[in-house]
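Q: Hi! First time doing this. I have a protein sequence and I read that you can turn it into a structure. Is that right? Here it is:
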Amino acid sequence: MKKTIALLFAFLLMISSACADGIIPGQRICQVCGNPTETTECLACGSPKECWVCYDCLTKNLSDTCMKCGKSRKDSLAAQAADPRALTAWPAVSCLAAESDPENLLRLGTYYQRGIVVGQDIDQALALFRKSGEAGYAPAWLYMGKLYDGGIGVAVDLASALDCYQKAADLGSAEACWYVGSFYEEGDGVTQSYSLALDYYQMAADKGDADSLMSLASFYLQGLGVEENQEKALQLYHDAADAGSHLACDYLGYLYMTGTYVDKDVEEGFKWYRKAADLGNARSMYALGYAYQCGQGVETDLKEAAKWYEKAALAGHQNALLVWRTLNR
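A: Yes, that's right. Below is the predicted 3D structure, encoded as structure tokens:
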């Protein structure tokens, strides 16, 4: 069924691609094909302007409730807009963005940014991101911050990046708090301040950001903006790992394997490497391969070593493929 709706929308977009550019908030949008329409029937696809297609059962409707399955227009559009297939999502995204829905203003902005469905237009994308952010949607400011921070489609602009991160942080984004903290830690575009960095990392951690606990641990370990406290740092690494940070799990694996800051315990190190690997950490996958190859914390098992080296290679570890090939000669 979902394949059918994707093909339907693909066809509608092919016959009306010339109309797809220029979707802006406030326009009336055809809920079937996603193009602007001010007439009683859409000039692109011929559908009545109030017509919408139920995302669940594909029934065309003119009222606010699907006459076949009972799904509301609002819920149908929201579900369709969240579909990862751009062609399927497009009509709902453009409709909801035109109604100034912040989440879909952001989605529509990414379409313009990448040239998906519509023509690529970074200025239009930034305008949509900003409108989404100004509506109180923190992810839009966070997204813009990353664009300016990394120079993605725009010139690197650290001042604008920090401004966007700060706006997202003020709206409660834990990730944005971490980014603001990193600016103060590194002194990127601002006067370096370990105390302010520490404050923002703590705010992010208090909001549930596990990786921010890693940053706090590093500060206590090095005595940056706070009195050096190795015991507290290790506890924070454990807290971060227990909260699901693959970076913290990987680092604890390294500490126990090498006996850095803790008593050496290869079995404990192996345990943390395995947890990090299960969370997708490529370096820990490589470390597990090495552990099985050399018998660190486990019995030597070259077959198991090759399996973990292969996993690490597929996860992007640059050296893992070379080792894997050596074991499989």
